Amino acid sequence: MGTLLDQFRKDLYGNKAGKMLASRKWLYDKLRGLAVNRSAMMRAGTVADVFIGQMFFFFYDPKTKKDLPYYDRFPLVVPIEMYDDGFLGLNLHYLDPGLRVMLLDQLLTYASNKKMDKTTRMRLSYDLIANASRLEMAKPCIKRYLYNHIQSKFIFVEPAEYDMACFLEAEQFVKADKKKVWKDSRNSF
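Below the sequence we write its predicted structure tokens.
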């Protein structure tokens, strides 16, 4: 069985248009019925420990947006540390789709199991990422999120769907276009 990166390359070069269309349909299906109700989201218990090491989309409005050179309104995040008021996570949108899959391939070496189902979690922490040279490309993806600035429910990405989520260019950068963000990220590692 090949790596996620091998599968991505096969999909990308074999049927790029079909994969993009399938990714868009997948995201549309996930977004259908997405309600913007922060208090209901928090009551639903989305802050549980199982949250760490899984992958989610959500809408976000940063507290310090005036001070940021740019930010993503619709991050694709793997939370790595939880706090009382939010969490630290890897926003994969800060990398172009090819690099996302390369990073994800590395992150999955820390997976709790090989099932690629709801029980699969990446055992990650800030210390691990900061000290692992092979995870260097994760550093520009590390972002802090505050619960009271999250503007939607979390959209859970099943581990079997990680390739769809990574391939999809769903980022919504404000103050810069994605090519500038991706270039800045590449230049940082």
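The chain has one domain: 4-187.
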